[in-house]
From TrEMBL:
GO cellular component: cytosol
Protein name: Iron-containing alcohol dehydrogenase
Domain named Fe-containing alcohol dehydrogenase-like C-terminal: residues: 6-102
An MF annotation (GO) of this entry: butanol dehydrogenase (NAD+) activity
Top-rank lineage group of the source organism: Bacteria
Species, as recorded: Escherichia coli
């Protein structure tokens, strides 16, 4: 997008899941995206509120309630399409998270996101939240 900050962190975290566990790209996006949005909700607040209103027509409640509802609606949408949204849904218990982080580091994916603020520690929290 010309002039629009872009965040490819969901894709990068997802690529490591694909490489390590053989999940397809749609599955990894459905796993990572809700967890990433929840983790980065403060820095993505304005965009998440815009998303809540424009995509899901969520206009009632506090900012946090609308963000929670938008994330839940997104997760529900993926689930209704038959794409589970947790690592555990694919028989993964999170024990590979250290290896996933090592691969991210090996691939230079240590400052992801539009603000380059998704460090390995943040990536760990995202993977853990996706369990």
């Amino acid at each position: 997008g010309a002039g629009v900050p872009q965040d490819w962190a969901t894709h990068m975290l997802g690529h490591e899941l694909t490489a390590m566990h053989g999940l397809d790209h749609a599955q990894t996006l459905a796993i990572v995206l809700p967890a990433l949005w929840n983790e980065k909700r403060e820095t993505k607040r304005a965009k998440l509120l815009q998303y809540a209103e424009r995509v899901w027509n969520i206009t009632e409640g506090s900012d946090d309630e609308r963000i929670d509802a938008a994330i839940a609606a997104t997760r529900n949408f993926f689930e209704q399409l038959g794409v589970p949204t947790h690592l555990s849904d694919y028989g993964l218990d999170g024990s590979s998270i250290p290896a996933l982080l090592k691969k991210l580091e090996e691939h230079g994916m240590t400052q992801l996101g539009e603000n380059h603020d998704i460090t390995l520690d943040v990536s760990r929290r995202i993977y853990e939240a996706a369990r």
